[in-house]
Write a structure and sequence with these properties.
Structural class: alpha+beta
Number of helices: 8
Order of helices and strands: EHEHEEHHHHHH
CATH topology of the largest domain: Glutathione S-transferase Yfyf (Class Pi), Chain A, domain 2
Bound molecules: glutathione
Distance between the termini: 27 Å
Strand order of the largest sheet: 2-1-3-4
Number of domains: 2
Shape: globular
CATH architecture of the largest domain: Up-down Bundle
Length: 201
């Protein structure tokens, strides 16, 4: 399998953490395909021009990150990262959607800030910032009473979202605003799959 990736994408990081946690890291070749500024390479695998895309051995490609994560979860070793049925599955998928939505809002701020100052929309930045603030509060509630619960897809998505806020928007101090998130973060931050996929400084 080949993973078309960029080193700073949080969606790619989520997929790579899942691959490591499932013991599949060695089965995946990384192909760098930076969508900015040139989406031509990634567009050969994902018509939307976005990383990640996972090219399977039969030449077909999977995207986007929730689909790839679920696919890898069916292949790898160990217990499932995404429960297969029932309320636990819907809870995990909801938390992943929340974490991915926080990443979407954070990426939109990063892109807005890259525009010339006179073209930036303060309103768009504030709207996305509020969405992130609400999202982080909800993620903290979703962690549940047991902070040592298994590192499943919900926790992986949460960790990647919080990590991306630290990485790209440290000035907004959005990621560790909640004591609960801070406590949990200090428990999981040394995990090898997180360390191995940390974005370049
Ligand atoms: N929902 C997608 C989001 C992927 C995404 O937005 N990737 C960004 C990189 S962080 C990208 O490739 N953007 C290029 C573009 O929007 O043209 C997923 O979960 O895979």
């Amino acid at each position: 399998m080949q993973l078309y990736y960029s080193a700073t994408s949080p969606y790619v990081r989520k997929v790579r953490i899942v691959a490591i946690e499932k013991g599949l890291d060695g089965a995946i070749e990384l192909v760098e395909a930076m969508p900015w500024p040139d989406p031509s390479l990634i567009s050969t695998q994902n018509p939307l021009g976005k990383v990640p895309a996972l090219v399977l051995d039969d030449g077909s490609a999977l995207y986007d990150s929730p689909v790839i994560c679920e696919y890898l979860d069916t292949l790898g070793e160990g217990s499932r990262l995404l429960p297969q049925a029932g309320p636990a599955r819907w809870r995990s998928l909801r938390i992943q959607a929340l974490a991915d939505g926080i990443m979407d809002a954070a990426v939109s701020i990063v892109l807005e800030r890259r525009r010339p100052a006179e073209l930036q929309s303060l309103e768009a930045i504030q709207r996305a910032t509020q969405a992130i603030r609400r999202g982080v509060v909800a993620l903290a509630q979703d962690l549940g009473p047991d902070l040592t619960a298994p590192f499943d897809l919900a926790q992986i998505a949460t960790a990647v979202a919080i990590g991306y806020l630290h990485f790209r928007l440290p000035d907004l101090e959005l990621g560790l605003g909640s004591r609960r998130i801070s406590e949990w973060w200090s428990l999981i931050r040394e995990r090898p799959s997180l360390a191995a996929t940390a974005p370049p400084i």
